[in-house]
Amino acid sequence: MAAPAALIECTPLRNQRIPAFVSNEPLVKISDLNFTYDRRPILTGINMTIPRGKVVAIMGQSGCGKTTTLRLIGGQLRPTHGEVRFDGRAMHELDSADLYAMRRRMGMLFQFGALFTDISVFDNVAFQMREHTDLSEAMIRDLVLLKLNAVGLRGAQNLMPSELSGGMARRVALARAIALDPLLMMYDEPFTGLDPITMGIIGQLIRQLNDALGGSSIIVTHDVQESLQIVDYVYFMADGKVVAEGTPDEIRASDKAYVHQFVWGEMDGPVPFQYPSEPYREQIYGAAHA
After folding, report:
1. Looking at the DSSP assignment, which residues form a beta bridge with residue 217?
2. d(CA 252, CA 262)
3. Does residue 239 lie in a domain region?
């Protein structure tokens, strides 16, 4: 798929308030991150590194803190302790103007796309360009068609979201997310509800668009096998902590019980099949003699 390579030419859209520079520092650095909500610990001692140009997955059960981690990276939440640094800047230390400027250098693909339902595919993708740049409508038109072509949907520009399949809607949302050529793309469960063909397409687009843009990507996902084919590194979370990390090959070969159960979809293990209860024999025997 050659189309995404053309996205490299779109660098004028990158926000210039905080200058971009070539650096050997990771794009995102999370250090000793703790987050408490209403006195309830959500994240404890999280350390992660998202290198420039790489695709990193964050995996784990529902409720383990994956999406909260994304929200802290995006500056929607402030850490209770520790910090998130994006392109060398601590997100919680930024004032409102710099925080919004930083966010314009990030893209987000929400779990079900979250397209604006009352405007066309074209206008969904054009929305950020019109809101955050001074580009002419002629330039916006060319760039929107470029983004849609990259996800294989240039011919769908005049359709409404209600006319799209689930997979097509996800691809339009991806085109919208890369509208401003973000340095960082964040994906919240991008494979949910997709058939195997569309899942493969989305996975390859994530990888190819990341390489074409020269940025970094974070994927929060439950879909282990699809993700391990496209990512460079994996963090496993449980109960608000990082319990394992490594390359896809290291994760597949892990002898840690939780990781092994999660990767291979085993019914029983550290995450038990049976909900806690009294011994089965005692419960049946007791009921029979009650």
Report:
1. 55, 185
2. 10
3. yes
Does residue 188 fall inside a structural domain? yes
What does the pLDDT look like over 229-262, one tens digit per residue? 899 999 988 888 998 899 998 888 877 777 767 7
260 SS3 class = helix
56 has which bridge partners? 218, 233
**CA 279 and chain centroid, separation:** 42
Name the packing angle between helices 166-177 and 121-132 (round to 10°). 20
Q: Is 152 helix (H, G, I), strand (E, B) or coil?
A: coil
Contact residues for 36 (Cβ-Cβ < 8 A; gap 6+): 42, 80
Whether the CB-CB separation of 244 and 259 falls below 8 Å is answered with: yes
What percent of the chain shows pLDDT beyond 70? 82
CB atoms within 10 A of CB 191: 21
Task: Confirm if 206 and 217 have CB atoms less than 8 A apart.
Answer: yes
Q: How many CB atoms lie within 10 A of CB 235?
A: 24
Instruction: List phi, psi (to 5°) of 56.
Output: -120, 135
pTM score > 0.85 for this model? no
d(CA 204, CA 263): 20
Q: How many domains does the chain have?
A: 1
Residue 266 counted as domain residue: no
